[in-house]
Protein 1
Amino acid sequence: MEHPIIEGSQYKQGGGRAWLVWGLCTIFVLYVFGAQTIFAVVQGSIQSSLSLNLAQIALVGSVYTWAFAVCQFFSGPILDNFGSRKSMIPAVALAVAGVWLYATAQNLPMLLLAQVVMALGAVFGFVGAGYAGGIWFGMANFGLMFGLVETSSSVASAFEQQLTALALKYITWRELMEGIGVLGLVLLAGVVLWVRNPVPVKPQKANVVGKVFSDLSVFLKSPQHWICGVWGGITFGINLAVGVIWAPHIMTAKGFDMAVSNWAASLVWLGLGVGSLIWPKWTDWVHSRKKPAQIGIVIQLSTLAALIYLPGDVSAVVFLLLWFINGVGSANEMNAFQIAADMVPPSLVGASAAFVNGLMFIIGGILMNVPAQLLGAHDQHAAYAYLPYIGVLALALVLAFVQKESHPSAVHGKA
C-alpha cells in the first residue's frame, strides 16, 4: 500500500523517513526513562560514595519529578511552535549534559543540578515522540503511534533494573553513567542528522513566549481537558506507584518471597506495554473514546482491589496474572491523550499531550507516597494503606462517565 505524500513535503506519510524520525524520538524516551531507572538501582551506591543521608537521596529523586512536572506543560507548545528539530536537539543535549553531570557529581548540589538539567531535556521525550508520530504518520494514527511509544518504554522498564543490577557487578555507578553519557552523544548525533518536521515549521516572529502561554491557556480554560487529564493522571499515577514501589510490597506482605514479588512489578509494566497496543486501536474499532475509558478503569480498579484483599494462600500464579491484567487496564491512560488531541486542531496536538502528561506526573507524584504516609514508621503493610487507591480510581470512573465523547466519527455522526 502506497503512503500518501505529505502536503508541502517530499516525504511520504508513514514512509522510511517517518519511521527513522519516530524511532530516534522513541529511543530518546527509552534513554531518559533508563537514566532515571538507573538512579533507583544505584542510589545506595551514590549515598555511600557522597556521604548523603536518606532524606538527601529522597530530595534528589523528588527534584527530578517536580522539575519534570512543571516544565512538561511548556514542552508541547514549544514543539507546536518550533517543530521537532529545533525542540529535540536542545532537549537531547540537555538530557545528555545531565547524565554527564551525574557521572561527575561530587556533592549534593551537583546531583540536584544534574537532575534539573536532565528533567529540562526529558520533558520533550514522551511528548516529542507522540508529536513525531502525529506529524509523520497522520493524526488518524496519533493514538496508535503514541501507544507504540508507551509499549516500548513499558517493556524496557520491565527489564532495565535487572540489567542495571547486573552491570553494577562489573563496573561502578560512575562508569555506568559515563557509558550512558557516551550513548547519549551518539543519539544526539542521530537527532542532529535526521530529526525534523516533514514540512518546516515557521514560528511566529511576534511574542513567542506569549504564544506558548496562549496555547497553554486553551487547556487551562477547558473543563473537558481537565477531566481527561485528572482521570488519566489517576490511572497513570496508580500504575506508576504499584510498578515502581508497591506491587512487591503488597506481595511480600502476603508471604511471597522477593523473587516472586519483583516479578509482580515487571508484569505490571509488561501488561502496560501490551495494553498500550490494544487501547488506541480499540477506540477506533468501536468508534468511541468514552466507553473504553470506563472499561479500562473498571479493570484497573477491580484487579487492584482483588490484589489488595485476596488472602496470601491464593496461588502466586493467580496474583501474577492479576498484576499483568492490572497493567493492561492501566494502559487505558493512553486514551486520555487521544481525547485531549481530539478536541484541538493539529497545530495544538503537542500542547495537548504536554498538558495531560504534566497533570499525570503531578497526580502520580502525590499518589506514589500515599501508602507510605498511612503505614508510617511501623512498616506494617496493612490493606487499609491502599484503600485510597480504590477511592481515587472510583473517582476516575465517575469522571470517565462525565467525559464527553470525542471520537471524530461519533462526534461527526451527531452533527
Protein 2
Amino acid sequence: MELKVLLVDDEINIVRNLQKIIPWHKYDFTKVDTASNGAKALEYVLNYDTDLILCDIRMPQMDGLSFLEKLKDHGKKCTVLMLTGYQDFDYVRSALKNGARDYILKPINYEELERIIAKHATEIKNRKLEQIKERNKWNKAMIVAYEKFLYDVLLDYTTVSSRQFLFDEENKLDELQYTLLLIDLDDYSQISRGWNEKERKLINFAVRNVLLDALMSHSLAYAVLQTREGEWCVLIQHQKNSGYDLEMVHMWSRKMLNAVSENVKLTVSVGIYPVHVPIDKLADAYKQLQRTVHLSPQNHQIIVLEEEVSQPNELKYSMWGLVEEIVSSIKKRDRDKMEQAFQELNNTLREISGQSLQRAEQFLHFMILHLLREMHEINVLTSEDEKSVWTMLERSISIKSLLDIIHKLLNDSFNSSTNRKPSDMLMVSAKDYIDKNLANDLGVEEISDYLGISYSYFSMLFKQTFGETFLEYLTKQRIELAKSMLLASDKSVAQIGKLVGYSERRYFTRVFYKFTGSTPSEYREKNADPKSILPDLSS
C-alpha cells in the first residue's frame, strides 16, 4: 500500500532533514512533498490525497493552527503531527482540539519522531484497509442489488422507472441499453431426467460460472442471470446510442457456446436479440428470444431473432401467450383461468393444424417440454408424474394424444399446487432463491424481503420445514457444493471458496474443516477420482 506525506515548515533545513533522516520507504511512504506555509499546504491537500502531514505551528501567511482549522472546515481527514518549539499547553491543546493526532517538540528527536511515524503509518494502513473492505463490500452489495433488479425486470416482476434505481452516479437507467443473449441447455428436460438434485444444482452452478468466465477478458459490464433451470440470460450493458456490432455479439456467443461444451461437456444454444434493448423493453425481448430458441429444431447453434411478420407467426406468439397464462394460473391456483386458456389453445391449434399438421405437432412437443421445465421450476410436479408424462410422450403419435398429455400435465401440476399450504410454497421459493444465490452474501433479511414476509415468520417457517436454521442450511449447501467443485474442477481452493460465498480462504477452510473433518485441499487429495462427477451424457 502506497502512502503520501506532506512536510510543512518554513525552515528549509528542518524540511531537508525530515526528508533525508526518516526512512520513509520503510513505512510505505512513496511520495514525500513539501510546503513552506499553511496556505500552500492547504492548496496542496485540497488537490492531492494526503495520508500524513508533519506541520510546524509558527509560519508566515498561515500558521499551523489556522491550517488545522481550515482542514477541519473542508472536511479533510488527514493524520496531522505538529512540530512545535512551544511548550505552552495552550498551543498543544488548540492543536489537538482542531484535529492533530500527536505533537513533537523542537529540537526534534529523530528517533522518537520515527517511532511516532511508524505507529501512525500502521494506523493509517489499517484504516485504509478497512475502508477498502467496506467499499468492496458495498460495491458487492450494489452489484447483487442491481442483478436482482435486472432479474425482476427481465421476468416482468416489477415496473421500471428511470428514477427508481440508480446503482451509481454515472449510470442512470434511462441512459443505458443492453445486449440480450439467451443461453439454453439443449434437451434439458430430457437429459436432466436421470440427475439427482445434487447433480442438477452442480451442473446449473457450473454452467453459470463458465458463462461468467467466458467473457471476463473482454472488459464488459455484464450480468449472467439464471432465469430457470437450464436457462440463463446474459445482459451486457452499454451507454445509450452506442452502436450495435452483430459480428462482435456473434463472437461473444460463440465463445460462451464453446466454453460450456469444453468445460461442462454439455451443449447449449445461444439466442441473440439483434438490437440493443432499453431496460423497460427487456421483459418483452426476453419472451420473444425464449420462444425463438425453444422452437428452433437444431441444437448447439447460435440463433438471431428475426422480425416476425407473417400470420402463422402471429398465431405462434399468441399460443405462447396462452402458455404463459396457463403457467401463471397454476401459480395463482386459478383453475377456471387455466381451463379457459387451455380451451383457447385448442382453438388456436385448429388454425395452425389447418395450415400444417406437422407444425402443430412440432409446437405441441415443444410446449410439453417447456411446461415440464416450468412445472419443475415451481416444484409442482412429482417425479412419478414427470415419468408418466415422458412415457406417454414416447407413445404419442397424434395431436389429440399430445393435447391429452398437456391436459394431464396441467391437472397434475394444479392438484399438486393446491394440495400444498401457502407456507410450503413460500419455502419452495426460499430454497430456490438460496440455491441460485449461494455465492452472494445472503442474509435472512434479504430472503424474507424477497418473499414478502417478516424476518421472524421466515425463520420460524424455515426451521419447521427444513429442521434446521437458515444459516445451518445455507452453510451445509455451500459446503456440499464446494465438495463437488473440488472434485469436478481444477479451480483453486480460494476460487472455489469465493464461488460458494466465502471471500476469505482462511474462513472457508475453517468452516469446511468443521463440516468435513478435513481441509479443502485434504478433501480433494483423498477423494480425487479420474472420472467426472457430472453424469455421463455420451450414451
Protein 3
Amino acid sequence: MPAAGMEASEVWSIGSIDPMVEELNPIRSAESRWLQACFYIAGFATLLGWQIILSFTHSFDCTLFRGKRFAGAGWAFWCSMGYSLTVNITQLVLTSRTVVSRIPFTLRWNVAAVCSALSLIGLMLCHLYTTPDSLEMGFALAVACVSLTGAASGIWQACAFGLAGCLAPSYAQAVMFGQGLSGVFSSIVGAAVSSSRLGLIFSFTFAAVFELLGIPVLYAMNRNPIVQEAGALKPATVENQVTPSSSPVLTRARSSREILVQNAWPQALTVAAVFTVSFTVFPGVTSRLSPGSRVPLLISLFQIMDFLGRFAPKCSVLRIDEGPVVSGLAALRILFVPLFIAMQRESEQTWAHNGVLQVAVMVAFAFSNGYVSTLSMMLGPAQRGVSADEREPVGTMMSLALVFGIWLGSLLGIVTQVGMQEVNTC
C-alpha cells in the first residue's frame, strides 16, 4: 500500500533518481573538485584494509594455515564471515538516530581510521609470529583482527556514504570508485609480492599508515564550502533544527524504519542482492578452485574488474537511471552461484579447471559486481519520496544493506562447502 501523502507516480518510480536532484546536485558537486577528491580518498581508505586482506588470502590460507579447515571451513570463509558480521553490527547501530546524535561524526570517523590501522598491524603480526604449534590460536587472533577491520570499515563506510547522501549522487559514486581503486592497488601489490614476507610487511604497514590519512581528509572536508553550506556535518538534533530555506539538511521526522519501508527498500534490497551473490562464491569458493596456483590471479582479476565496473557509470552511455532495470541486473547475477559451485565440485573435469573459462567467468562476475552495486548506491539516496533531511540516513541504510549482503553471502558460502574435502589443495 502506498504511504499516506504519496502520489501514485512516486510509488511506481521508487528506486529511480528524482529528476530535480539529478538536475541540481551535479552543479553543486562540480563547484569543488577538491571535495570529490576527498571522497575518492575516503572511499579508497574505507576498503583498503579489506582489499589488502583479500590480496593475501592465498598466503594466509596456504602458507600460514596450510589449507586447514577450522570448524568445517577454511580461512577464506571465516575471514569474510568475521569481516561481514562486524561491519553489519556497527552499521546497524549507526542507523539509530539516538546513537548518531550522541556520538559526534568526527569521533566516529577518526576512531574508525585508528582501529582500521591497528587491525592491519595486528593481522600482520599474526602472520609473522604464528607457528605450526599455535595454528589454532593464530587463526583465532587473525579472525579477531579481521573482525576489527570490519567494525572500523562499517563505521567509516556509514560516515562516508551518509555524508555523500547529504550532498549528491556523484559523491556516492566517488566513494564507490575510490573503493574500487583500492582493489586495483591491492591486486597489483598482491600479484607482485603476496608470496614474500617482506612484501607482506610492506603492504600491511603501508595500508595502516594510509588509513590514518583519513583523519586529515575529514578535516579538509569539514572546511569545504559545499559541506559547510549544506550543514552536512552538523548533528541533526532538535536544538539544531533549521528551516528549509537555510539548509537542505533538516531534522528528519521519520524513523529509519519508516524511511526504509516506505521509500528506500528497492535499492537497499538491490545492493544487498549484489553482494549476497558475490560473497557466496568469493573469496571462499574461488579460493578452492583448481589449480590452486591460479587463485591469486583470479582474486587480482576480481579486484581490477570490480574497479572497472565501479568506473563504468561515469560514462553516460552506461549510466542507468531506472531502478527496476538495475534491480533486474542484480537478480540475473544469481546465475553465477551454481556456475562457481560446479567449477569447484567438478574440478576433476577438464572444463572446470580450464583457464580461459575461469578468467572469462571472473571478468563478468567482477565487472557486474562493481557496475550494478555502484548504480544502486547512486540511486539510493536520490529515490523519489526521500526528502533532503533523509538522504544521509538513506546513504547509511544503503551502506548497511551492502554489508548485510556481504554477511549473508559469507554465511551461504560456508554452506557451499558441505561435503567437500577437509584440506585445500593449495
Protein 4
Amino acid sequence: MKNFLSLLFFLFVSGNLLCQSVLLDKLVTVSRHSATIDVYLKEISAKGNFTFTYSNTQIPLDKKVFIINRTQKVSAILDILFKNYDVEYIERYNKIILKPLSSALKTINISGIVKDKSCDESLAGVNIKVYGSSFGAQTDQQGVFRITVPVHKNTENFKLIISHISYKSDTVIVPKSKINKIAVFLESNILDIPEINIFGVPQIAFGNTEFHIYDYEILQDNILLIVYEKRLSKSNLLLVNKDLKLSCIREIGGTPVGMYKDCVDDVNLITFYKPYKLTLKDECLSFVSAKQTWLNKIHKPCVAKTKAGLLFYYYYGPTRLSVDFSFYNPVTKKDSVFRQITDTISLNELKENLEKNTQGQQNARGNMADIKIGDWDGDDRLSFETASDVEKKKQLYTPMIFLQDSLFIFNHCEGLLEIYNNQAKHIRSVNISYQDSPDWKRKVYIDNATKKIYTLFFKNNHYEVTEIDKLTGALGETCKLHYTWVDKIQVHEGNVYFLYKPAQYNFRKCLYKQKL
C-alpha cells in the first residue's frame, strides 16, 4: 500500500512538472497583424482552448500592438504583447495567470560603462540584458547604462548579456556586492580588410559574422546599410563613412522593405509600418516621416528636378506595354507628356488576357506605406504588377536618366537611345542593339561621379557590367564580377557595389566592391 501511494505521488508530481509549460508552448496563429492586447488575449484563449486570468486594472488591455509573425508559441506572442511591461505568466492547470511582477520585491540599480577594447572609447547603443528576465537597458552617448531590477533574498549575482551589432557579444557575471561602476570592454567584430587594388578582385566593403546585410544605399560619401542578426523585424540602420568605418547606428521602427533614392538624391526607407526620409545630421542619421510627393513616388518614379524646377518622371501603363515620359511644372501645377512609347504588337497579343488579369492594378502601389509593397524586390521600383515569366519578357523596360543636364531615354523597344535637353526638346537619337542579346538582364546603371552609364549581362554563370557610350550607343569596357548570384548591383565612383554571401559557413551576407 505504501509503495502504491508513493507511485501515485510520483505520477502526480511528474504530471505537474511535465505540464508546466504545455500551454505556453502551444502554437497559435492570430488572425491579424495589429490589434489591442485585449483582442489578442481573447483570440489566443479561444484558439488555444484555455483561459487567461488577470486584473483589468493591472494589464494594459487597450494598448495596440503590431505582430509580424502571426504563428508563434503562446509564450512568444505574450513576450511581444508585454514587451514594455513587467508582466509574468504563471501556468496553472488549464489557465495562464497574468500579473505584474511583485512590487514587494526589493529593487537595486546595476550601472556601468561599455568601451571599445582597442581604443578605450565609450560605446553608445550597446544592449545590456539581465539573463533570465525582461530587464535591460541601452548605453547612452557616453557609454553609460543603468538597470533597475527586482532582487530576491537569495540572489547572489547577476548575469549580464552585452551585445552590439558591430562587436562580439560578451557575458559578464556581476556579484550583488559589486553592481556599481561596472566596466565592460567589447572587441570589434567588423572586418578590417585593406583595399585590394588588383583589377577585377572584389573586397569586402562592409560585413561580419554576426549580421546579415539586407539592403544598402550610397548617400554622398557614405553608405547606409540595413542589417539584422536573426530577425528582419529587429533591424538596424548603419552609417558607414567614406573610410568604410562605422559612424552611427539607428534602430529601425518596423520591418524594412528596402531603400531607394528619389530624384533629388534623398534616400527613402520603406517599412511595413511607415515610410521615412533619411538625412545626415550631427554625423548620424535623422528619420523623418515621409509622405508621397512628386519627388519620391514609386509607381511614377521622378528622374530629375532641373534648375528651372521641372520634375521629369515616367510611368508604365497597367500592362507595362506602354510608357509615358512627362514633366511636371510646380508653378503651373500641370504635367505634360513629351514622349510615349508603346509596344503595339505585344499589346494586341496580350490585350484579351491582360484585361482579365490586371483589373485594378494600375495604381496598386500609389501609397508608399502600402503593405503590398513587400512584392518589391528592392532593386527595381518601376514595376509592381504580378506577371508570368513569359509576360515579363514582353514587358517594356525603357528607363530614363538625367545626366549632365540632358535626359536619356533607353528605348529598348525600338532600339534607340534618345537624348533630350532639360526642356524636353529632342536633340538626337543613336542606335542600340545590346538589348537583343539573350544574356542581357534589363538593367541600366549610372555613375554620377564619373558620368558614365552601364548595363548588365549574365554570361557563363557570372554577371558582367558593361559601359554604354552615351554618344554612340556602342558597348565599351566590360567588368566581370568575381562572384556568382550577387544582389543589388550599384555603380559609384568607378566601383561596382553588390551584396554577396561568401562561401565560408560563418559569414553572413556582406557588401562588396570591385573596381571597374
